[in-house]
Structures are given as C-alpha cells and as structure tokens.
Amino acid sequence: MSKPKAEAGSLIKAADPTKLAAAAERLIDAYKEWMIVREQETTKRELIAAQRDAAIAKICADRDVLVTYLKGQFETQGKALDGLFKGLDKALDSKDPDLVGPILSSIVETVKTSPLGDMLTLDQRMKDNSFTFVLGGN
User: What are the extents of the domains in the chain?
Assistant: First the structure.
C-alpha cells in the first residue's frame, strides 16, 4: 500500500467513532443545505425566465399595436392627399385660380400634421391598463 493511503487508513482506524459520526452528519447537513439552495436558485431562475417572457410578450404586443396604428394613420393621410391632389388636378385643368389656392392650403395643412405627432398621446394611453385600442374603427 502506498504511504498516503496507509496514513489515511491508519487515521480512520485511530479516529474516534463519535467524531466520524459527527463529520458524516456535517457532510449530510451540508448536502441538504446545498439541495435547498439549489432548489431556491432554480426557482429564482424560472421566475426570471417567466418575467423575461412576459416582458417580451408585452413588447411584441405594444409593437403590433403601434405598427397597426401607424399603418392606419399613414393610410388615412395618404387617401386624403390622393383626394386633394385629384382635386388639384381638376382645378388646374379648369384653370380656375380660385379653386387652386384652397386646395393647396389643404395639402399643406395635411402634410404638416404627421401621424407620428399623436404617438406621445397614444403611448401615454397605452400605459393605462383600462385603455382599449379598437382596430379599424370608423
């Protein structure tokens, strides 16, 4: 037998059985404590993952609402401008300057108002849990 193994064996044979039992008990207690901490940390990681998933779902839902809102707003503004430019074309074809001025003013006013201007208001309203966003409302 090698010298370290022989020394370890002789120490175990020479050790007091009550000390061996106490050491074994401490080892078991340490293992039980480790299992409790491991379970707690696993639970914490699961909670963090669930919170992450909920936050990502909320971000995606908010994104979808904002994209839908902006598409609708830009579509509405686009339709309004199409109608105004068609009216401008007719006014120019009729060579009536009294019709051209008001239509140009309307075009300028329509372009001045950006659908992005209402974003701050929409963002504030979306933070209110009682807010309901209705898609395709007339």
Answer: 16-126
